[in-house]
Amino acid sequence: MKKGNIGIVKAIGDAETKLTLMEMGIRPGKTIEFLNSAIWGGPIAFQIENNIVAIRVSEAAAIEIDLIKK
Amino acid sequence: MGSSQAILQTKTIEVAIVGNPNVGKSTIFNQLTGLKQKIGNYPGVTVDKTVGSCEIKDKKFSLIDLPGTYSLHPNSEDEVIAHRVLNSYDQSEHPDYAMVIADASNLERGLLLCSQIMDLGIPMALVINMVDLAEKNGIEIKAFSLFKSLGIPILLTDARKPKGIEEIKDLLYTENFLEAPGFIKMDDILSETLSNAIQSKFGLKTSYQAFQLLGFQEQESILKKEQKDWLEALVIAHDFNLAKAQIQETEMRFGLISKVLEKATLKKPIESKNLTRTLDKILIHQIGGYAVFLGIMLVIFQAVFSWAEFPMDLIDGLFANISQWLTEHLPAGAITSLLAEGIVPGIGGIMIFIPQIALLFGFLAILEGTGYMSRVVFLMDRLMRPFGLHGKSVVPLVSGVACAIPGIMATRNISNSKERLITILVTPFMSCSARLPVYIILIGLAMPNENYGFVNLQALTLLSMYILGIVAVLASAWILNKILKTKEKSYLIIELPIYRIPGWKDVLITMYSKSKTFVVEAGKVIMAISIILWVLASYGPSERMAQLDTEREVAIQGLEGEALLESENNFASKKLEASYIGILGKTIEPVIRPLGYDWKIGIALITSFAAREVFVSTIATIYSIGGDVDNELTIREKLAQETDPITGAPIFNTATVFSLMVFYAFAMQCMSTLAVVYRETKSWKWPVIQTVFMTGLAYFAALITYQLLS
């Protein structure tokens, strides 16, 4: 995903952090908008419903997304 | 009946306050309890236990502020505490009610936690906070519909307004709390046989409590070994997959919550200007974000140092006056001397740091309150990771510039134990405020107060000392990261909350409570060491001391004014030399000689174990400067004149001064910090390793500095 991309969460793969991601509101069917990333492949920040959430790329790898706007 | 009525009236009602982070929970808690808060410890964990009291009309309440959590799953010690308190496992806490706080704009997430608490079976109420903001964003909440679906009292409010707090007080006063009907059907997650077995063994009311116990057994330190083994065996016997069950539980909850919210909320799409997203375009920008962060840090440090100077001078003067007054007005003797030279300066030595600590934590609380702090974690995470640190390590390290003690205590919200340990071990390398007076004296000796181009040489040297501290932090963290091993996965999942104006009362309460923590934690250790050092410095082998006393009697006879003062100072210096601490200083002289120090500096190194800034007053006494210790110029002039009795070369030459500065930058000389490290790591292993490593590094770095420069 790139800056400005919008997608819909399709699924969260099996990861140790799956439960935490779900608790933060990252669940299938939710619209997700990529906002920004920190330098050198640092964490990524995205808008999900009313919230902005930041996670590392390694956590983001578990989230499957259908892009709806590039 | 009269007596039972009286008992009812005086009974304190205990209410646990729970909620997600950033829902205004601490604002509500601070508004209700003000300064009537007590911070204690929960057994077995390092989470602060914050309990406050408040009176509403004729009723007394004890409010337990539980740490902000997203769920009752064991992600960190915070959840363990929420779970423990809500189930009354801890013998000292039995909350009568739970008051759940949720953010009106984030009800779905708030209801996840709320529904879990509902299933625990504790009487509760749901306070939906920040309703005004949600309405502005087009979210309308129907309280009655929610009440019908959930079966617990609902309060829609805005706790930032006086009316909101009144409504919450009403809720508490009327004790409008209800035991909820269960929210999810537990049978699908935890079989009835399994649930019944656990419930009867532990005397639990609901099936969800039984499920929770399974989830928390590993982390819950107050369970007995045999209880844990019993649960473990049960899990294996029933082939129960906990992680899967927790995910299933969460999915079920969210499914039901969506249905509840469909009925209870109306969403009007409002295209409002989103301040947070606009600000974030700069504040979390790949370049701009870092520039702003650096700018904010510079402004904060500038403000902390310049604003703290005046109150620090006041405190310094006050305690010097008290000491002087005591010496003049109390009968001379050991007790007076202990008071005037041991205890009062000891207390003064603690108090002097309060302005800097209060100011720095005030600024940090403002950053936290605005929601900016999470952005700092976001920005810094990638930069900290190569060193085995976490984005969240930034706050402890920044705090370390004032004092390592509150910094180390701020590591508690780092969930990965390895990252937390590294942060604890390296934070004392940050240049704390106790090093500052030492640097200022020494820099004055070594560097001319001249400008080189636009740059003042002394200021540049001071800045280098701070940078040296940061380099030591990163280098040692990098080494520790290579050595320490962990199986725990490091992760970062953090909410970047909307920007808002910080609650000023919250900021003031943070300043107060952090200063209080410092006084209590550092105070007792500094106090004890001050007294021990006073004994060591005042007494020595009696023969030599008595001889000095007689010599002094003879010498000061007939002397007046300047001459008397000079003679007194001279004898004070001689007595210090003859005291136990003087003997100690001479004993270590061979060890510190290669660093360019004589036994007099050795004494100052020893007394620095109380607190580093004691170096200045010790040096003043031992070089018989006496009198006006606070006048840095006097000390500098005197020290510059000191020469080696054998070679005649100046003692405080450039090499020695730089070697000393390097030593103070690296050495672990703070007993209070060690005591806190012991408490936070729950073992003596780490404080010992820390002392050996830091002091060893200091020794060799100082050795190299001296040998290169001399």
UniProtKB/TrEMBL annotation, chain A:
Gene3D superfamilies per UniProt: 2.30.30.90
InterPro entries in the cross-refs: Fe-transptr_FeoA-like (IPR007167), FeoA_core_dom (IPR038157), Transcriptional_repressor_C (IPR008988)
SUPFAM superfamilies to which the protein is assigned, alphabetical: C-terminal domain of transcriptional repressors
Domain Ferrous iron transporter FeoA-like: 1-67
Record bears the keyword Iron: yes
Keyword entries, A-Z: Iron
The name this protein goes by in its record: Ferrous iron transport protein A
Protein species of origin: Rhodonellum ikkaensis
TrEMBL record, chain B:
Residue ranges occupied by any FeoB-type G domain in the UniProt entry: 12-178
GO CC aspect terms: plasma membrane
Residues that hold Mg(2+) according to the record: N30, T33, G34
Entries under InterPro entries matching the protein: Fe2_transport_prot-B, Fe2_transport_prot_B_C, FeoB_GTPase, G_FEOB_dom, Gate_dom, GTP-bd, P-loop_NTPase, Small_GTP-bd
Membrane topology: Multi-pass membrane protein
Subcellular location as annotated: Cell inner membrane; Cell membrane
GO MF, any single term: ferrous iron transmembrane transporter activity
Highest taxon, organism lineage: Bacteria
UniProt keyword terms in alphabetical order: Cell membrane, GTP-binding, Ion transport, Iron, Iron transport, Magnesium, Membrane, Metal-binding, Nucleotide-binding, Transmembrane, Transmembrane helix, Transport
Binding site for GTP: 19-26, 44-48, 65-68, 129-132
TM stretches of this protein: 287-308, 387-409, 421-447, 459-480, 518-537, 689-709
Entry similarity comment: Belongs to the TRAFAC class TrmE-Era-EngA-EngB-Septin-like GTPase superfamily. FeoB GTPase (TC 9.A.8) family.
Entry function: Probable transporter of a GTP-driven Fe(2+) uptake system.
Protein name: Ferrous iron transport protein B
Species in which this protein is naturally found: Rhodonellum psychrophilum GCM71 = DSM 17998
Organism ancestry: Bacteria, Pseudomonadati, Bacteroidota, Cytophagia, Cytophagales
